[in-house]
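User: What would this chain look like folded?
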Amino acid sequence: MQVDVREFRPTDELDVATIGSKVWSSEQYWRDMTPGEEYSDIDGKLDRDSIFLVAEIEGSVVGYALAFDVDERKHPYPSDEQFRKQVTEDTLYLDELGVSPEAQHNRAGTALLEEVIERASRRYDKLLLRTNPKAKKAMGLYLKHGFQDLDVKDPEHPERTYLIRGL
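Assistant: Here's the prediction, encoded as structure tokens.
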């Protein structure tokens, strides 16, 4: 199946929220939200360097990726000195990459990640993300695309680790 990646549109809010609720259903944050609430004012939250993409298969949104400038106001990054040396103002943070469970194994996650990497490389030196190392599919995707585990735990979610990739 052909995966098409394009910019997020406001009309994608419910599709993205539905995917997010399926992918992140174990996260309390997502369970407490109304579908679409996370993205209802997305235009006001993104700056010119943000990347918000959706993946479509046969015209249906099956995945999304959201990345923005590293910003400690949005995420309390670890105080680890080695981490701080790696993460600079030339780092883009991949906050979310989600693919509907029904569409997994159709290369939607790969297509989204590769498009984020390509777009990020135009402006940034590095791409940072955090994930749960026990999520074998996600870890495999990121490692296959050149990410390295910084072996630094997220202060808010200690089960997650940070990965980084040069661009």
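The chain has a mean pLDDT of 84. If you want, I can go into more detail on any region.
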